């Protein structure tokens, strides 16, 4: 009985999923100078797939789009643990 309760609890737990547009490094000085309208270069091409992270860990790659009127990501590649 307790095993099924634990399983049910685990399956209903929510995790954070983030679609990462890109990454860059800036100095604190440059960060303080940011203002509305500035462009931040992310170091990747707009044709590159986005990295999707689950609980901060890269899990899949995909391309953004729209599905049923909502923003979505179409998964194109599963990131294997050895490729991290």
TrEMBL record:
Q: What residue stretches are annotated with the Flagellar motor switch protein FliN-like C-terminal domain?
A: 9-79
What protein name is recorded for this chain?
Flagellar motor switch protein FliN-like C-terminal domain-containing protein
Entries under SUPFAM superfamilies matching the protein: Surface presentation of antigens (SPOA)
Q: What is the lineage of its organism?
A: unclassified sequences, metagenomes, ecological metagenomes
What InterPro entries does the database record attribute to this sequence?
A: FliN-like_C, SpoA-like_sf
């Amino acid at each position: 009985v307790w095993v099924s309760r634990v399983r049910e609890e685990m399956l209903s737990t929510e995790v954070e999923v983030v679609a990462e547009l890109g990454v860059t490094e800036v100095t604190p000085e440059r960060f303080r100078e940011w203002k509305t309208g500035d462009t931040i270069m992310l170091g990747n091409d707009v044709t590159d797939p986005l990295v999707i992270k689950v609980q901060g860990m890269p899990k899949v790659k995909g391309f953004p789009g729209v599905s049923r009127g909502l923003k979505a990501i179409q998964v194109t590649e599963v990131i294997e643990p050895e490729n991290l």
